[in-house]
């Protein structure tokens, strides 16, 4: 892992040392996500930040649970309720 001093120029742009710029995932034009926590600055690529976020969520989901399937089931149940309510309303008005 590379380490080096980062300088801010007059416009506030950060100048990264060559060793850090050459690190995997930080090719020319790539984005670096900076996080400040407890007065510490931490930088990572967007892909690395995404993988960390995914790992945090995965740690909170029980094994075998697929959140996407639960979301789809919830949406289908809500749609079925809405449809039933609409049919009841039409029947009540005599339009059914």
Write the layout of secondary structure elements.
Blueprint: E1 7-8, E2 14-15, H1 18-21, E3 32-37, E4 40-45, H2 46-60, H3 67-93
Antiparallel strand pairs: 1-2, 3-4
User: Would you tell me the structural class of the helices and strands?
Assistant: alpha+beta
Q: Low-confidence parts, pLDDT < 50 over ≥5 residues?
A: none
Distance between the termini: 69 Å
> What is the N-to-C succession of helices and strands?
EEHEEHH
From the spread of the alpha carbons, the general shape counts as elongated
Spatial order of the strands forming the largest sheet: 1-2
Number of domains: 2
The level of helicity is 40-55%
Radius of gyration: 25 Å
């Amino acid at each position: 892992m590379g380490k080096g001093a980062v300088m801010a120029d007059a416009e506030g742009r950060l100048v990264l040392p060559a060793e850090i710029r050459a690190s995997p995932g930080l090719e020319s034009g790539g984005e670096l996500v900076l996080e400040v926590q407890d007065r510490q600055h931490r930088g990572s690529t967007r892909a690395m930040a995404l993988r960390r976020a995914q790992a945090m969520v995965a740690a909170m989901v029980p094994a075998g649970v697929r959140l996407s399937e639960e979301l789809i089931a919830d949406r289908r149940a809500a749609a079925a309720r809405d449809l039933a309510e609409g049919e009841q309303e039409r029947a009540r008005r005599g339009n059914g």
